[in-house]
Amino acid sequence: MGSLDGAEVCELVGLYLLDKLSPITGKLNTGLYRDDGLCAINTCSPRRLDKLRKDITAMFKDEGLSITIEINLLATDFLDVTLDLFNNKYYPYRKPNNNQLYINAKSNHPDPIIKELPTMIARRLSDLSCSQDEFNKAKGPYEAALKESGLANNLEYKSSTKVKKHNRNVIWFNPPFNKAVSTNIGKIFLRMVKKHFTKQHHYYKILNIHTIKLSYSCMPNMERIIKQSNAKILDDTPHTNQGGCNCSKPEDCLLDGQCLTSCIVYNAEVSTAEKEYIYHGSTKNTWKERYGGHKTSFTHRQYEHATTLSKLIWKLKDNNTPYTIKWSIAALARPYKCGTRHCDLCLTEKTIIARSKHSGLINSRSEIVSKCRHRKKFLLNEVT
Ligand SMILES: [Zn+2]
Ligand SMILES: [Zn+2]
User: 54, 95, 289, 298 - which has most CB atoms within 10 Å?
Assistant: First the structure.
């Protein structure tokens, strides 16, 4: 509980428990959401119900867990909905002392959020109500809370809504929102996209107004600002990791005595008599380890396509063109920290590639929209 992947772990444990439950309750009528479960049984026999309860309790005990079971219910609250088998109805449920509180109409939030809030609440309540009647019965406290916050407070019933399919190949730009800023950043930003990425531009395919969408993000509140500041002060991991060099002949070090530096973006400048090429790469390990990988791809034909750099080297080799490679550090970055949304290392590399004006840049264009690979290692399916 409370850990960064708590929800993922919970889901996994839930699936395991559902599998264990299926021989006892049958597969189709049991469901779980996080730590809340619901099971529908078609029987009125108290003896059978009691046996079921005992079986389930025993199963949980076997797993070292305890469970509270309520049986003999014809109606029950599950999350935010009441399911009533007796009257064949369902309607919204609120915990008795759970008072609704919405953001204030004057708070520092983008207009669309403040304007859309009542609509979103109405949609949610409508989806949770089996009829308009039930909706009207439930809406009172929500309308009162909206009024309290100074928002539009007439909730209207909407029969079930269709889910719109979203285009997944969209890059979102989420600039922070602040009411004190009078410039319409969204409008200007999209205008700039249109102006600078014309149809002739070589990035037009990935950067145009159909693939870039804008949605404001909110500024952190006071609590978050203080937490962030505390975390920064208490964080003792070094920002850069300049490790020095362990080459047997330090004077021959390919990275000027810095080959053990980790978490860097590096340059590889390839020079031939006619042309100069440049390649930018990044590594979270030491540069030396990464260099080992590059070296393998230069000497073994099966790794020819490992990077655009190795492709170039093989091309030069095949044409018998003499070449030299000069390695250097382009930038130092912070390593990816589990749970954060941005990877400094990947973003630094992408910025360097995107800003490069070198005519011999050999990184492929798609690299600036590739996904961070450092985040992957923290996913559950990677844990062994
Ligand atoms: Zn070295
Ligand atoms: Zn990354």
Answer: 298
